Amino acid sequence: MTILVTGGAGYIGSHMTLELLDAGEKVVVLDDLSTGFRWAVPQEVPLIVGDFGDAALLRDIFARHDIQSIIHFAAKIVVPESVADPLGYYLNNTAKARALLAAAVEAGVKRFIFSSTAAVYGDPEHNPVTEDESLKPVSPYGRSKLMVEWMLEDVSRAHDLSYVALRYFNVAGADPLGRSGQSTPKATHLIKVAVQAALGLRPGMQVFGTDYPTPDGTCLRDYIHVTDLARAHLDALRHLRGGGESLVCNCGYAHGFSVLEVIETVKRVSGVDFKVDFAARRPGDPAAIVAANDRIRSRLGWTPRHDDLETIVRQALDWERKLAARNESGA
Ligand SMILES: NC(=O)c1ccc[n+]([C@@H]2O[C@H](COP(=O)([O-])OP(=O)(O)OC[C@H]3O[C@@H](n4cnc5c(N)ncnc54)[C@H](O)[C@@H]3O)[C@@H](O)[C@H]2O)c1
Ligand SMILES: O=c1ccn([C@@H]2O[C@H](COP(=O)(O)OP(=O)(O)O[C@H]3O[C@H](CO)[C@@H](O)[C@H](O)[C@H]3O)[C@@H](O)[C@H]2O)c(=O)[nH]1
After folding, report:
1. Cis, peptide link before residue 128, omega less than 30° from 0
2. Is 226 in contact with 173 (CB distance < 8 Å)?
3. Pocket test for ligand 1, best of 73, 164, 170 (most atoms within 8 A of CB)
4. Claim to verify: residue 212 and residue 302 sit in the same structural domain
5. Is the CB of 193 under 6 A from ligand 2?
6. Which domain holds residue 42?
7. Reported pTM
8. Secondary element (H or E) of residue 241
9. Inside any domain, residue 29
10. What is the ipTM of this complex?
């Protein structure tokens, strides 16, 4: 039985593919390489370059491979871009997910694991936020993902398809064995930006907002190591294969760090005191969002192994150095 990984050439999908191979699973990747990289897909894994909303291509893939499970990562993921181009986000993240689900149901696929996001909560009233908190996404990105959760709920009632939707909090770090990492050239994620500043790949960085109602005035986030996140999908797969019911689970460590704490950690681990400017708030940022993780622990048996900000930062630094060397050599 083969697992179809959409978006497997991207940041999280490439770590998932490695995790699946390490677990002895057979994998096929479908990716249009819009933000992913061919080199991020291990050579032994078939990479189909194409669009996950292409019904004819999907039919062909399901005819050629014995696919019982899909792990669906492919999406557009930049919140401000979604504000400027909502229709592009509803097309890629929502309408194409409908096409993928339709093809999956037609082909008799039994299990579906979906990359959802903490963005479905918007600015939560309580922290840590549980899965039962009200869902008030504030961006087209968050809404485009929430609609897929709703589609999954309805489709799983009508057809023989069960699912787990995982709501990721802030994904960070790199494969501990140095095989993959966050490679998007213009990534805006805090740890990536701070690591690039530490390595002199950018002149410095900005802190967006210092007047939030948090202990040091900067935003609080729950940073989860990408390998722990990939393992959550393996746990979800095991759950569904064992006949477990459809579920929605948060993925995070249940504690947060402020922007200043993250920057301080990057400075300490790298030994570089890079330039930091204080700037205005970035539109759409919630002050604090931290995952309650009781459900994923109890229902999927998920246990974090890399819950340590220094380790996350060290591995992100190692990966960024590797990436810089690769870009310099033109590989
Ligand atoms: N990175 C985070 O902090 C974070 C947080 C919450 C949720 N997520 C979700 O995780 C998933 C993966 O995110 P990522 O950070 O790895 O992003 P990424 O951009 O690195 O990966 C997305 C991959 O999907 C591919 N893709 C996009 N549209 C496609 C299409 N129409 N057809 C085929 N391939 C397509 C891209 O080429 C890329 O390889 C996304 O669904 C995202 O919404 C990410
Ligand atoms: O140069 C920077 C970059 C970020 N930040 C701040 O750092 C925090 C974290 O920002 P970022 O790393 O961009 O992540 P989020 O905006 O929290 O969003 C991430 O986490 C969400 C889930 O919580 C996902 O839905 C998104 O896809 C993912 O980008 C925020 O307060 C930002 O304002 C800065 O101060 N300076």
Report:
1. yes
2. yes
3. 73
4. yes
5. yes
6. 2-172+223-251
7. 0.98
8. helix 226-241
9. yes
10. 0.97
